[in-house]
## 1
Amino acid sequence: MTNSMAEDHGIKTREDLIDALYEAAELEHSLCCLYLFAAFSLKRDPEEGNVTWVQIEKMREWESSIFLVARQEMAHLGYVCNLLTAIGGAPHLRRPNFPTKYFGGKFPFDLEAFSLKTIAKFICYERPHKDSFEQNHEYLRFANVPPAYDTIGELYTKIQKGFETLVQKKESLFIGPDSAQIESQDFPGFYNRPGMYQIEIYKVFDLDSARRAIKQIIEEGEGPKREKPSEECEESYHYQRFLCIFEELKDMEQDSQFQPARPVVDNPVVLPDDAGLPDGSTRITHPATKATLDLFNAAYEIMMLLLIRIFSHIDETESDVLALQKIAFFPMMTMVIRPLGEVLTQMPAFEPDTGHTAGPNFEVARDLTLLPHKQTAWIYLHERFQELAKDCNGVNHQLNTLSEDLQERIRPRLCQLQKNLDVLAVNFFRQLNLQEKS
Amino acid sequence: MLNIHFGGWFQCRLATEPDPTDEPRGVSGFTFAVAGEPDFDRIIRLQDAPSVVKRSHTPTVGVTVKGIDIDGQPVPEQNPLYQVLVGAQVELLDDAKFIGQNYILALARKEPIDPFHLQISKKIDSQYKAIVRRKDLWDPSNSKIDIYQILKDRTKNLEDVEAIVGRRQPIGKDTARDVLQRQSPEVAEATGILDACGYLQQRLEQLQRELKELEALPDSPNNAIQIAALQTRIRKLIPETAYQLLLVKVNYQFDINGPTNVTHLDKELLHGETSVDVPWPIKFWMGAWDSDALCGYMKGTVSIPFKPFGPKLIA
């Protein structure tokens, strides 16, 4: 599936279009994870070593910029789900685990700490057409990119052409209910102003709205079409943001002491000792870190299952969808995934400790699928929340195997997480109107 | 009823959405701990203590009693009650925080303050002495229970929980429109900020001048940190958007219900006594959020059933 659009067969059928959108969904989802991983790896305090307060101020700007890009990738994934629903496909939140390859199997997607090389790769993911103006830019040397690969913009341009072709051929391309789609103004509570947190998603119901979605995705990624790159670092599109970080980082690396990232290993993975290790992966062996990584992945999987229900809502009431949104966006993303991701990049990867640290790998052990029956889905998800809280308690009991200094740094966050997960499980129970077993 | 009117600037160094509540320095929201400053701790500080992280050109922290009345009748300045209360310090004890945990405990802008343990104290003979102190409890029958235990209790349904937590939450339904009062004339009057954009523009110019002065000094590690901190403050201070928060407020109103064993009232200083068997109504707003100073303004009234000793205190 991931290689389907690398060769330009064009999009001739609804199935082709759905397949291309599946690839787009996987790309957006994977990019979001890569960006979060790099952002989580950034140091936050001079006490972590090899960074000064002055450098940390700049690093915070980078981190903020990367988080913003990750939020927009998440929104793009939502947009692609809307495009899929509009034409009769199913929202697609599956993706291969890391490490993987995209762009026709040519371009590796690895979870890597923040570095010049990583940012150079991010620029390559987001750059405009491969033959564009910056062909000889220095970042290409750092990124070690394959000689030719399609860009995200090219994939979306094909998708747009597919929509245009099929609208001409078919009278009824848009057969999916727009009521099942999500738009940012529906988001709960207080973040329902368009553009809040730089996230905008609208419903797709005809060719114009499909074009609008695709245009927005392309422009937020590679920027509007232009003759040469903007020199403004304040520009909001991803390609330009990463170019600016690259230039600033290159400049700051003239200080040979400067090391902005924690010593995070590539593609961390938890596997049994006797299981084969995928190429490019790093086996995490520290027990407390393994437990924390498992906790992260359980939380990530629950969040994905919630998102699948949100993007596929069928017989949910408005208040069901609102309740799911109130849990999946805030707080699962901000109060569970991010703190755990940040904690993991401080935890030892190995036992005995070699000084290397782990990171979140966004791994799903099984296929993520829609839980089709609403009531059973709520019961299942509630159980998963309860297990998550229990697992967090288990992690907290293992923290005393870590150094005192590290315990002091991460224990408050994990203890708070424990309290929050306990409440979150009950919030889910209450908000989805689950009944106590008699 | 003795009505004690208070007001003043407070500090609360906290991360803002979409950052997690426990984000230590601020990344994606609009508040930041800048170079050299300690991590955020979210504690609401009503008094200018060493733990307040004072930034240049920002308001002085200090919530004090501004006036008193009994049953609406002003108490004259020469009255001993006036002498002891007006100018007294108002504090929230036990590290009070806005608690929301990004929608887990409460929605944004609907965060209750917890713990809510109000104290009014006065410097007497070089020492601060508590005049009035009372704590609000989530459950007056169980002073140990906290909000997590209430929310975790599955025997309580959504309405029960909303009633318990909602009592101490800002007034208004769950939408920003209902909770936040924007362009509030009361905020403008209390803070004296009649031109919010101009107020921030002036701050920006002060910071820019300070930066120039620092840049003219010889290089030193400390100087570099101060410059980096100022540069971040300048970059993040955008009067065109930040001014909107300056004239915003949220309103709180509840009855402080703590039992007598956690209530303190200095009868001697107050020249009277009060009932602690009944709750004390409190009504206040918090607003005027100055995102550069990490400060806001608080104004309100606590009402205490009061019986003066001896002759009537009102002139």
Note: The radius of gyration of chain A is 22 Å.
## 2
Amino acid sequence: MIISKHSAISFFSLLLVFVFSITIISCEEEGPFIDMTPPNTSLADSSYIDSGNVTAQQRNILIEDFSGVKCPNCPFAQQKAEAIETANPGRIVTVVIHPSTPSFDPLTKPFPISTRDFRNKFGTLMMESSVGPPANLPSGSVNRIKYGSPLNSRTYGHDYWESVVNTEKAKSTPLNLDITNTFDAGTRELLVTVKAQYNTTATDPGFHHLTLLLIESDIISIQDYPTHHDTFYVHKHVLDSVITPIGGVPLNKDKVKGRTYVKQYKITVPEKFVAANCEIVAIAHKDAANVEVVHVTKKHLF
Amino acid sequence: MRKVLLIICFFIKPLLGISQTISPGQLSGNFIANAAGYIRDDRIGANTTQYKKELSSAEGWLFLNYNNYGFNVMFRYDFFNNSPLLNPQEAYSNQGVGFWQISKDIEKLNITVGSFYDQFGSGAVFRSFEDRALGIDYAIEGARLKYNFTENFRLKAFTGKEKFRFGRRDPIIKGINLENSFQLSSKAKLAAGASLVNRTIDEESMRTIADNIRAYDVADRFVPKFNVFLYNAYATLRFKKIAWTVEYNRKTREAIQDRSGKLVNRDGQVYFTSLSYSKKGLGINFQFKRIDSFPFRTSPLENLLNGQLNYLPSVTRQNVYRLLARFNAVVQDLGENAIQGDILWSPNKKMTINLNVSYVNRLDAFTINKSGISYKLDTKNLYFNEYYLDVNYKFSKKFKAMLGVQLINYNKEINEGKPQAHFVHAFTPFGEATYKISPTKSFRLEVQHLGSKQDFGSFFNALLEYNIAPRWSFSAGDMFNYKPGVDNPTNEVIHYYTFFTAFTQKTSRFTLAYVKQVAGVNCTGGVCRIEPAFNGVKFTLSTNF
């Protein structure tokens, strides 16, 4: 059999397709971040019904402020959050998240003289799994409520936060949240116990979830402004870590009045965190299908 | 029509710099329309939204093809009014351009922009196609190049997005394919090809995929890939009266949904081979296919027939008679082994015998290793099995008849995705007789009896058809569920009557029918969907020009 010129060309072309295939398939790509580390499991996990009288707490409001040290307008968002806190004493819990993704890194990556890198996997993951990445910085979410027209975003500019806070604070919460803790300054071991108790029977779909965070304030480090850098800027409410799994732990027995869940966690607070400036934040929120926050509270380590 | 033609010419002419007389080119097309009126019948489950609210529905497609100056322009206008065609549980209404294409040959190169249908090999790595009966339109919208090096040697490449109703799905699809055929000797010919296909997931879909995975236990989590690659190689060798086809398809690791809907990270492969022998009066065909984790859709979040990008052919017989087609093997893209043998024998000019046997079973129920071949055919491992025999006999120029039997073993839980459904055994003898009264008038009678204790039980079906060629056709039939089975919605004996009439005028055909149809799996070439029962009136029109 004599192989013709065309046959030879086509044979090599087929070979080329295979070589081309293997070359492209071998290329590595960067996938989304998936946390493969085992979650911090609850030390105590009990649930019971308290038949005594339960007094309903006022519903507190969570402001998640997505920020960056190289974002010149971000200090104004922080000022706005502080103004809302002052106007609503004890009702607002602010958490500042410095997300780390290729699109946000130019605004959140630290300066060479920064004292800390505020970016961490917790903030990025929490953002991605709850409200989704905002279109720009500064941006934020109030109780992870959708806002704007046509209600298609859970993140929006700080000019809108007050309006959402006013709507949200008029609502009641079906859950009371109480944090107790001990902190051993020598070992830096933090033992947190959270009691979540239904003050009424909740009827919204799905189970509520509980997420515990560790935030830190009064960190002095450089921050960009539109006209200058502030080397002594005081960063507040910065998210350090998430104690529970990122999406929270489900409170999944039922949601009847008096149902009480007690969850206990132990972590070692890293040396770089100033324990005196750290606070534990407990967020009660809906499930992944509707991430809205139903209540939030916080407590200093000591 | 002339106005449309002149408008198209008016726009194309300046593009081509033509100053001489405008050539009218060629314009052709077709129009197909369906309409239905719904009569609610809760006994058979004919109670979807159309029976409760809309009461009627219609769909239509106007297709135009214009050819001039080496350009080929295709255009299709679709409309759906309260239509259940795209989703049997939905009343979908929308209209617009459903398909458009501009194509041009430049010597050996063909450029196509717009919507197109295509296929690489058997379609396991890529097939874009339309099946109106199932409400499927998997057209790709983008660009495609074809280059014919020689008459036998061709390269194809494309990139685009899959059409979804009147929009597009976000992931990007691209692919390249080479095909050639070689004349090895005067009696032997080899046709071979190879392909590479890639799909890149969009950010929004990936975010949802990642969120799903993050909710899993740590042991079940994985990092999903934006890109999945599929590649294949295939060849058909023809030697005298024998043809042998082999095809190997591979898919890189990606997130796919397992049977419970959970995302798992798997690669996949499909093996296919067929061996056939044919000579005058005898045709023998043997096929084997093994599928291992090979779903390929626009996104792993899609399921059933949504966003399908490939086609896994069914290695089972495609039946047409009403009761014989009641149970179909739905191709299991997560995994199956399928084997089929088919013999068509005509011992003389009057008689034809057709024998078909097929088995589809669990992927791990068939293994080949050093200790030999092992297989399991119990109801847990068997997905589908059919024995089929028919004998056709032509008694005279006026009268011919056919008798046959079919035995089906059908795993309803797997094929219809109904947990705990009973495994179905059905035995169906059937027959058909055609009698020509005159050269233009004929009667046709078909009769089937399906005996089963499971599913909806036993049915009897008879249909009498009267044809007056070339214009009229009438038929009346009754399929009745005389012995209801364990899954029947009611214990009543229900008659599924059909009255049908068709009128043909040159290239136009009109049909009007009253149909009562049992719920079941509707399949075309292995692509299947579960359809609810129907009770009402159907009108169709199809015409070519």
Note: Chain B touches chain A through 37 residues (CB under 8 Å).
